[in-house]
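Q: Convert this sequence to structure tokens.
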Amino acid sequence: MLTWSVLALLALTVIKGLLNYGQGIWSETASQNVAYDLRNEIQRKLTQLSFSFHDTSETGELLSRAIQDMERIRFLTGRASLRIFEDAFMILITMIILIAMDLKLGLLVLLIWVQEEKI
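A:
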């Protein structure tokens, strides 16, 4: 029994690692594609602006702003959005298990959590 338990745990660990790897590749690809599209759109918009705008604007400031904002958006569309969904799913499953184990305690915890969120 112990051998099978260890092998099952090892198999689950390998599967989790493979899924995390796939998730990382998927999220990074999606965030890079979003960043690519946004960079092209920024470049298109900057080339359409008037010469007077470029005369009054500092090039370094425009580049710095574009790069920093792009990295923030890329992070948000990548790992951050997946973490939000993971955490929400984990909270939902935890509340279901807690309510299934003890209805009164689960509802009390849910009530306290909802009240804290309102404050």
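The two ends are 50 Å apart (CA to CA).
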